[in-house]
Amino acid sequence: VTARTLEVYHVQLLRCPRLSIKAFVKSLCDIQGVPFKPYLQVQFSIAFDLYLDVLSRIHGRVQAALGHDSPNWRLANACPCCLYHVEGEPSMHYQMLGTWDGNNSLKRLVRNKSTENVDGGDVPAPEKSKEFEDTRVAGGDYYLTREEVDAWSKESIKAAFGDQVAVDGEENTCEEQWKNLSKEVTAKMWGVYEETGVFLALCCHSFVLLIANMVRSGELSKYPLPVLDRLLEVIGKDIAMGYDVGCGFGTTVSRSPLGEKAKELGFTSLVGAFHGHAHGRLCQLCHLATYKPDIGIEHLEQCEPCFSESNELASSTRHMSVFHRRQAIARYCYHHDNFEVYSRLSKFLVDNYKQALEIQQTRHALAKTMNDMGIPSTDTFRQWLADEQAYLSSLKKEPLEETLQMEYFKKLVKLDDSEYLSNATREWIQYTPDNISQAFTNADQARRLETQRRHAIKNHDNLKKEVHVLEMQLGIKTRWIPGSAEWERTKQLVSTAKFQRALDKLEGLIIAWLFELTKLNMSRTGYKLRKHIAQALKTRSQAICTAVASYNDAASELGCPQLTWEEVLDYTFLSDFELLRDARRDICSEPWAQPAGCLALNQYHKLVGSEVEITRLNKEIRSLVTYMHEESAYVSLKAEEVRKMDPLLAVQIQKYGWERGRCKDMHILRLNKLARMDGFTGSLTPGRGALYSKIQGMMATETPPSSPNNHDNNKDAPPAEEDPDEEEEELVELVTVLRVCGD
């Protein structure tokens, strides 16, 4: 098998991860005009394995020659916009923005031998893996080892620190909506899988930071905790990460051994804009990126598009060995970073800049809205958020006294009913069992009534004891009677609780209905799944109608406005339901509860975020320009330096430089177009980055010293104008070189 053929398959595999070796070998057989034979697939697989090993060794030598082989170098330099710092750049509140999440598509099946009994007994022997022991380690510094992850398990933390720290956070109001906040769901997974997925961390530009394998479990907190530990160790302070359960994870971090370190380094756990729709309004006010002005307009949802692309790997990695699965995922991530994300990096920056400028154009509209609503200053919006947060915080839990009073009211109602039933059965007491049989022609009916009588009397006595205990706790000396002030007030509280339970059920049905409707219209949803979802939607619609009816019954008891089917379908956010929660206080008159006020509040935060976004983008654009300028110069100088001793290694260094260097002209073209737009306030002039001093040192050793007249006296002179003819000749020469490289 020629190296050229292996290279063709390797490139095609990275572009189309679903392409199998069998399909490629069959296509080769068709081209050569020979029948396919299974041993050809085996031979090609062995050759491709060796080819990847050669590439890995070459890559290691290139990294060593460039000085990129230090521990965690790739992580510290993963993104040129986030992590390539330039002298004199403005300081931001958050040094790096990112996101992380778990993906259960990249599972790997357990490959065990058949179970045999021990010594012919009934006890089965432990299952052993069919795989040959492979001591090779793949993944490089993309992966966290299993030992690093297991060190942050609940058992390991308790063994090391005792009970003074806890991995699990306190009770979270969003736990019912999110499976990866539920301990019962995340603690277990189907036994047929060894690796149940991956936990991935990305920067806000979608460059891969770290990967952790999820092993025989769901998305436990032991996966993001070691990732956070590594990020804090390598990148340092002021990191903000978006997570679909960022609210619960922030509490988990504060209670874990990482709590003090994360607090000192300014780590912030947030909820992304997309997943924020399924969080309660109080959670949104505290953790949603929209209400954090220092974030800009970033949505912190880069994991979902990345998973959509990487899911192509699932079919090929499902039956791989441990080594080959990690190798395939790591090589995919390397290609994803250098050939996909980096090539569209300038487009990402330009699009965000245009979006921020468009938001800036709404400043006058916001000022007009503020004038119409009588809002004196933007400080009012911050006060609205504080008022809404205080109001919703008061609804998190009913006061203990009110809870006891409602329980006392329910017991009194039950006691009254049981007393009526007990009195109704007292006339049976005069009968003995024999007389009962005579009184009732049916002996079974007589015994059943006697049993009911005994149960009614016993239940009445038990309720008397429970009512007495509650009276002692509440300090009630005179028992409430129907119609009294205490009775009516507590009856109102019970009706409120019934109302809120009906609202909870309706809310859950609507959100599930919305998610299923979104999935139904999503691309790549199979026919059978579409039919299944359509049937579920039909059933869900009937359940929603029933829930609306129950809600309206509960609302009528409190005098609250009722809902129609059309109004319910317009509720697309959980925050819409939050305003209906409290029936004891009318908040419709509050400005932050009115539609116009909500729109103005959101527009204000978008406007503030756009200002921060432009400042951040100006910094990132200059970092990218400086990185491209210095990286290309450094790689070229290093290749010339190595060429004297190892010409073949110098060629590989040049090829490594072209992985990202080929996109330089495209990036500069896009950024130049942006610079000509009205409102652009950044600079495309390269600054001095991390490689500047190295480049100067290499140039000083290779370039003969020039006279002072040629260097010192002309260092401030403007650059000479370029001749258009020379530019055209250089372009023709560049095209020729590219064609030769392509051939």
If you had to describe this structure to a student in words, what would you say it looks like?
It comes from Rhodocollybia butyracea. Residues 446-473 form a coiled coil. Residues 719-731 have a biased composition (Acidic residues). The chain is mainly alpha-helical. Helix content is 59%, strand content 5%. The protein is built from 31 helices and 6 strands. The chain has helices spanning 3-15, 21-32, 38-66, 73-76, 80-83, 146-150, 154-161, 183-186, 224-234, 246-255, 259-264, 281-287, 303-310, 314-317, 322-341, 345-360, 363-373, 379-393, 400-424, 433-439, 443-474, 485-520, 527-558, 565-569, 574-578, 595-643, 647-661, 664-675, 692-702, 708-711, 724-742; strands at residues 96-103, 108-109, 193-203, 208-215, 239-242, 268-270. Strands 1, 2, 3, 4, 5 and 6 form a 6-stranded mixed beta sheet that branches. β3 and β4 (208-215) form a beta hairpin. The longest helix has 49 residues, at 595-643.
N→C terminal distance? 20 Å
The radius of gyration over CA amounts to 34 Å
As a percent range, the share of helical residues equals 55-70%
Number of distinct beta strands: 6
**Estimated structural class:** mainly alpha
Shape: globular
Mean pLDDT: 78
Strand content: under 5%
State the low-pLDDT regions, or none: 114-126, 705-722
| Biggest sheet record | 6 strands, mixed
* Total of helices: 31
